[in-house]
Amino acid sequence: MSSHGFFSCTTILVVVTTMTACRAADRPRLDAPRDLILVTIDTLRADRVGVEGGPHDVTPTLDELGRQGAVFLDATAHAPLTVPSHASILTGRYPTAHGVHDNAGFMLPDRVPTLAAMLHDAGYRTAAFVSSFVLRGSTGLARGFEAYNDRFEGMGRSHVTVSSLERRAPEVAREAARWIASAPRPFFLWVHFYDPHAPYDPPPAFAAKFSGRPYDGEVAAADFGISLVIGALSPERRRETVIVVTGDHGESLGEHGESEHGILLYDATLHVPLIIQGPGVQSGLTVREQVRHVDIVPTVLDLLNVRTRESFDGLSLLPVMGRPSLPPTTTKVATRIGAGVGAELAPPLQSPSYAESRFGELHFGWAAIRSVRDGAWKYIDAPDPELYDLESDRAELENRKALREATATGLARALALMASRGESATAAPSTVDAQTAERLRSLGYVGGAVTLGARAGGDPKQEIGSYEAYVKAFNSSLSLLETGRAREAETKFRALTRSFPRAFEAHQYVGRALAARGAYDEAVVELDLAIALAPREPTLYFDAAKTLASAGRFDAAFDRVAAGLRLEPASFDGWMTRGLVSRAAGRQDAAEQAYREALKINPEIGFAHLELGRLAETRGHREEARNEYRLALDLDSTLTDARAALERIR
Q: Bridge-partner residues for 378, per DSSP?
């Protein structure tokens, strides 16, 4: 049977969970000392990689890597967002199984094993270097890594800019290369590059080379970063290192009306490059079958000869690479729709791929959307469902649902089964609760019954135009706030809250703008409303705590920071906030304890040392203060307050 007709039949096979069965007695063990480097590039379209069919001047390092290894032409992600997608890459599980559905308000649960934890248990030394604050260790992704470098210039400050919470690929690559130079074997290194993410602002050399092509310039900068990481390996170690490179998701670049990513589930944001090179991988191999991010973990475990009892949603790709998977790999749970549950069945040649976007639901009250893709057809479950023939319509422009009802029905059943398993997060309601509704009414955002207008439960593809307008207005307002024009920013953010009353970020930034001009009580009202709309997002509690402390309402401030830390206990931002609140309340010992707790989580927070220096200076401990100020400047040379303090107490 051709894959093109796979889901048009009455009987449909859906592989729900696979298990790479334990091949060791009691615990994972290492059979061969192969190293592993995983590189993930944020927002990387497959069609920008030369060996994937893209231009040949953008990714020379990736192209050479592909010629030396295996190139997967039809690799697919499971969410068009950074944290959920990386959670799938690092666990081999769909979002329905690992429970991370958005960049905000979700942490990877302790119960979900990570690749780093499995390899660490097998004797690997593990390290990660990430380029964006969104992948900070407190998301749960740091579990299993002995070193997790998520240092950013703006960490710990009361007010930061977006640009201070990301790093360029060459900087991160050089830090990773230094780690490789002294890393004992075997090791697992994960390096994340953020460069291709909007706004597209490549480094000067790449901006000049790719004039008029800023996105390509950012991709080229990330490719250069890969060359620095690989170049840190000696020829001998290179021969013994498995290298995996993929994008976490793509970028729409205007396709289907979406400028960037996050809302829609078309291949512009789900089709990603995937290249695997190293021992056990045939050189010059091209794989055309659909593969998935969830297949990466079982594949690299096979390539490394590491054995585990853990179960995955993915399958080892060794069979499609011309090699048998390490036995025994069996289907743990399989369902044949129309034929009962629990049958032990061989998986199809192309296992279906699940994807979801809950961004519109969680941020605006629109409908959640989900999709299933079998390599030939894609079905998108939305208020207006869609079916695309991927073999004849790669751009997904012609909805064929009405013409292929049987195919659509089969895929819809498969998708319903895939979406129903696991511990899915609590769905965001299409209407807000009564207390929040009353707050919205009292602030003049909505009137009458709070149904959020026609947008409640709306189809994201129908709302994409309004979302694009929202993003443009939000970024414009943010620029005003970051340049000290708080009143103008407040006016613009307020306009957004009236058009999008469920958008908690808009309320959050009204609060930040009010706080920036000293209107603390008004700011707290907005921040508490944001908390009511998004009670799982710890940053909102930390913002409210700092604002309450500025207003002298210390008991309430401590309550808010405690609530935020309950949501994200390993948040250095949370502990820094607790320190700031404690110092403002005159509790110096508590402040010192909080700052030191933040440094335990992340030892490279220069601002924490600045605050410790201030505490020491207040106590008259001048030498201790000098040491802390020096440490602050060593970690962050932009801390002018630390430099001035050193001059003052020299």
A: 373, 388
C-alpha 214 chain-centroid distance: 22
The candidate with the shortest Cα–Cα distance to 605, out of 572, 560, 649, is: 572
**Other CB atoms within 10 A of residue 572 CB:** 25
What Cα–Cα distance (Å) separates residue 110 from each residue in 98, 99, 253, 294, 394?
A: 10, 11, 36, 19, 39
Strands 271-277 and 12-20: unpaired
- Give which of 69, 41, 33 is closest to 188, Cα–Cα: 33
Cα–Cα dist 41/133, whole Å: 14
Question: Per-residue DSSP letters for 480-528?
Answer: HHHTT-HHHHHHHHHHHHHH-TT-HHHHHHHHHHHHHTT-HHHHHHHHH
Pairing relationship of beta strands 147-149 and 125-129 according to DSSP bridges: parallel
Separation of alpha carbons 240 and 236, rounded Å = 7
Nearest-angstrom CA–CA distance, 62 and 577: 42
pLDDT for 530-577, tens place per residue?
999 999 999 999 999 999 999 999 999 999 999 999 999 999 999 999
Q: Token digits for 218? A: 């950012």
CA angle 276, 76, 247 (to 5 degrees): 60
Half-sphere exposure of 198 (CA within 13 A, CB side): 14
For residue 18, what pLDDT is reported?
Answer: 39
Instruction: Give per-residue pLDDT as tens, 86-96.
Output: 999 999 999 99
Contact 591, 142 (CB under 8 A): no
Give the span between the Cα atoms of 427 and 533, in whole angstroms: 13
Are 17 and 312 within 8 A, CB to CB?
yes
Please give the pLDDT value at position 422.
62
Domains of the chain: 20-326 (3.40.720.10), 355-420 (3.30.1120.10), 434-648 (1.25.40.10)
Beta strands 241-247; 271-277: pairing state? antiparallel
Neighbours of 435 (CB within 10 A): 9
Least Cα distance to 419 among 366, 355, 365 occurs for 355
Measured in degrees and rounded to the nearest 5, phi and psi for residue 378 equal -130, 130
pLDDT along the chain (650 residues), means of 10: 37 39 36 86 98 96 98 98 98 97 92 97 97 91 94 54 72 97 95 96 96 98 98 94 98 97 98 97 95 98 94 94 60 30 36 96 94 96 97 97 96 93 47 49 41 63 96 94 95 95 95 97 96 94 98 98 95 94 97 96 90 95 95 90 91
Chain centroid offset of residue 68 CA? 29
Q: Are 333 and 310 in contact (CB under 8 A)?
A: no
Contacts of 85 by beta carbon, 8 Å cutoff, 6+ apart: 77, 78, 79, 248, 249, 293
Nearest to 173 by CA among 127, 222, 139: 222
Q: What pTM was computed for the model?
A: 0.86
Assign 18 to helix, strand or coil. strand
Tens digits of residue pLDDT in 175-197? 999 999 999 999 999 999 999 99
Predicted pLDDT of residue 420: 86
